[in-house]
Amino acid sequence: MKLKLTYSGFMFLYELLRDETFKPEPKETIAKIVRLILVGLYKKFYSKAHTKESKYNIKLNPVEALAFKLYFRAHSFPNASFEGNLINQIITSIHQKYQL
To answer: For the chain, what is the total number of helices (H) and then of strands (E)?
Structure first.
């Protein structure tokens, strides 16, 4: 699955993944697995964050997409905000693509 992001969308997700990556390690096994997958996704964003572009393309494999959906569907971002709308769009796209 390919995410097509603007600079502001890319930076929001980059910072969100960075913040989640540096939180204390969870105790539950499933939460640890999801977090490790998100760390790998953060590394993808990190490698592209050094160059400013108007559009970014990030490819998510099915495991990364599932981890993203599992982790961020529990977060509460206001639907009317840019951040909430972006997260909800990505989660909806993941659901449509993989029927997860």
So the answer is: 4, 2
